[in-house]
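agent> Task received from the user: take the single chain below, predict its 3D structure, and emit structure tokens. No templates, no multimer pairing.
agent> Plan: (1) validate residues, (2) run structure prediction, (3) serialize to tokens, (4) report one or two observations.
agent> Step 1 OK, no nonstandard residues flagged.
tool_call: predict_structure(input=
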Amino acid sequence: MKNQKNKISVALYQPDIPQNTGSIIRLAACFGFILHIIEPAGFVIDDKRLKRVAMDYTEYLELVRHPSWDKFYSWSRSQSKRILLATTKASRSYLDVEYQSSDVIVFGRESSGVPDAVHDNSDIRIRIIMQNNIRSFNISNSCAIIMGEAIRQISA
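)
tool_result: status=success, residues=156
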């Protein structure tokens, strides 16, 4: 794995919907961020539904797979990465963060989020504040919203 200290990343914690992962692959290819998948995923990574949604974008993708949260967490610390967890359980808005190019923004499983250990090991927890206390967006929409702001800040 090459040194990726100065490029913003997204990490998907045990994703379980291939179409959402495919959409995030397209975002990563278009925006130029590194995509980390923390396994196990709830589908085969080369699933044909994933390929159908990602189309030919995978050739522009920097994808790193980690066999577990522990391996990902060890890697992130060895690379001096700051872990930001996007979660509905946070009180801090994603707009109130000063993003850094070395950040990794973690998104949990669509079906169940992340376990307490991931919350506990995150440096910052963020959320998208929504009207009427609606729970959440689709994960690929949330990723696009947060990464749009992070990349805007870093590119300014």
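agent> Step 4: summary for the user.
The chain has one domain: 9-155.
agent> Done.
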